[in-house]
Amino acid sequence: MAITRVWIEEGCTICGMCEDECPEVFELGDESAVIKEEINLSEHEEGIINAVESCPVQVIQYEEV
Fold first, then answer.
1. Which of 8, 20, 35, 41 has the lowest tally of Cβ within 10 angstroms?
2. Which domain range does residue 25 map to?
């Protein structure tokens, strides 16, 4: 399986856990964490999954194919 899409739903508390776990994909915005553009998600699957699992409000979602 390969991660093809990552998104952040409403409710992000901007805690920074996702950026700590996978700074290649996530960064903190003004109102929410955001996904960096032009990223090959399949190269960072382990970090993305770690970020999803560490999110205290469970708003990070991903899609696999």
1. 20
2. 3-64
